[in-house]
Amino acid sequence: MAKKQENVPRYGTAMRRGIQYYRTRITDADGKRVDLYAETCEELQLKEMEARRQVEEAVFRRKHPTVAEYCEKWLLMQSAKVSSGTLRGYTQTMNNYIVKPLGEMYLSDVTADDIRLAMIPLASKSAGLYSKVNMLLKCVFYSAERSQLLEYNPCEGLSAKGGKPGKKINALTDEQVKLLLDTVRGLPPYTFIMIALYSGLRREEILGLQWDCVFLDVPTPYISVRRAWRSENNRPVISTTLKTKAARRDVPIPKCLTDCLREVKEKNESEYVIADRNGQPLSSSQFQRVWKYVTVRSTKPHTYYKYVNGQCVKCTVTPTPGSHQKNNPKLVYAIDFDVTPHQLRHTYITNLLYAGVDPKTVQYLAGHENSKTTMDIYAQVKYNKPEELLGVVNAAFAPSVGV
């Protein structure tokens, strides 16, 4: 017992509420001085040892965080830069495809092989998801490298290509555009489709568009993109936070869209160009119902259920172009091609490039922050037409003819 007593430090004392305690001070993980109190020296020694252990652990964890811990910190740092919707997407993807396979490992222990093994399940997923996980991995590990938490970055050399190739988005032809507009003329999605086809605005930019940003009575009519729509719990939220800085732009519009918007404005009492019956921006489910006017007129196979002898039976019909829906004679099946809201924007960009507009101007009009996005579309448009390349090829090899 005497030996144990000799190992106990001699602490100073302090009075607290009229009672004398033994006291010592330590420096915590944040560099602040912290007081510890106890009624006996032995008890205070145990408190001090536990506190120092926790400080050492906290310091170690800061220098050697796990993947899960640093991912959480990285997401917190992004919360001031991106919208809540984007942050939710990042969080879900990161938790499913980065934290699950790697989360318990110390960040500094992760090797390139660990990264490749974590990416294996994504080989069966879409190329878009593979690219997103690839981007998040590189952002996290490059951020850790800049913070000097890594001596070696395991993401160096990680290929950005992988996953199942997605379905290629093809621009609508002039004939398809005419058929689409003729089919939905006078129906709820018509105005949305016109704006997308002839101004190239994104879906969230169209649904957030207000009349104070539509200038029709000026020498050069244009739309000023200043707001964006997003959905939170199926409730529309309109804000001035755009997808990127480049999304803030003024887009001149052609006469056909000017005339369309002028007609809509005369009948519209809402401050929103696209609004519900109460003059409010559409919710996510409302927009889906609006777009349904397009999909139900498609000649793609339609599936429905009916009861036969008390049993629910699945039925599939493939409408022929020009035929009418049995229960709604006014509904004509006319759209014999795939069409999505984003495809309308893609058609606008493609048509600009077909018209010879230089890619830098197209980048501005489309609101692309990265020129690579514009140039990828440009390459598809310019270099996938053999009849236009024949003269270029002949001219390139003209000197070798007859050799």
UniProtKB/TrEMBL annotation:
The keyword Methyltransferase does not apply. InterPro entries: DNA_brk_join_enz (IPR011010), Integrase-like_cat_sf (IPR013762), Integrase_catalytic (IPR002104), Integrase_recombinase_N (IPR010998), Integrase_SAM-like_N (IPR004107), Tyrosine_recombinase_XerCD (IPR050090). Belongs to the 'phage' integrase family. Pfam families: Phage_int_SAM_3, Phage_integrase. It comes from Merdimmobilis hominis. GO terms for biological process: DNA integration; DNA recombination. Residues 167-394 form the Tyr recombinase domain. The lineage of its organism: Bacteria, Bacillati, Bacillota, Clostridia, Eubacteriales. Keywords: DNA integration, DNA recombination, DNA-binding. One of its GO terms (molecular function) is DNA binding. Site-specific tyrosine recombinase, which acts by catalyzing the cutting and rejoining of the recombining DNA molecules. This is Site-specific integrase.
